[in-house]
Amino acid sequence: VQLVESGGGSVQAGGSLKLSCAGRNFYQSSVCMGWFRQATGKAREGVATITDDGKITYAESVKGRFTASHDNADGNENLYLQMNSLKPEDTAMYYCAADDVYCPFGLDQGYNYWGQGTQVTVSS
What we know:
Layout: E1 2-6, E2 9-12, E3 17-24, E4 32-38, E5 45-50, E6 56-58, E7 66-71, E8 77-83, E9 92-99, E10 113-114, E11 118-123
Parallel strand pairs: 2-11
Antiparallel strand pairs: 1-3, 3-8, 4-5, 4-9, 5-6, 7-8, 9-10, 9-11
């Protein structure tokens, strides 16, 4: 299984970024995916997750600002995160995660597969 994130970068507060994650070579057709982030010196936390039947869970800190979505374009399991009204506290390494066997509950981090991460930096 391979997860490749893209779309990170630097932006000023109030700006927007869209992250993408292309997942391929899963063993099963039902895949749950999620976005997680880790700021320097802090624990990794859940941002948004999508179950295999399309249920989306958001962290309270990003509700109303971030939108997660999923499609199967190009034969991949693609996960996106549209981030609007970005704040300096959104600065972190953002990771894509996926699992084709077990779908973790809510923002739990029990995913089997993880990407390398993409950095998001928001300046004030």
